[in-house]
Specification:
Elements lengths: L2 H13 L20 H15 L5 H6 L3 H9 L6
Helix pairs in contact: 1-2
Length: about 80
Amino acid sequence: MTNQEKLTQAFCDALGIGPDQVKDDLQYNTIKEWDSTAHMVLISELENTFDVMLDTDDIIDMSSVAKAKEILAKYDVSF
């Protein structure tokens, strides 16, 4: 499974959405499924999937799928 597929799966599992909705321009609070509670579930899912520990600033800054990729890149996860 590629890192892109893992990222898509993490978003699907955490937010309960279909893979067709996981696009770079999907943003926090633009769909009802991605609220503050789901955001923390997503962070946990991403940390477990990619074996990283995100810092507080990264958690706050993660506002879209594209931003998630950018943040994970700082932890040596390539897409």
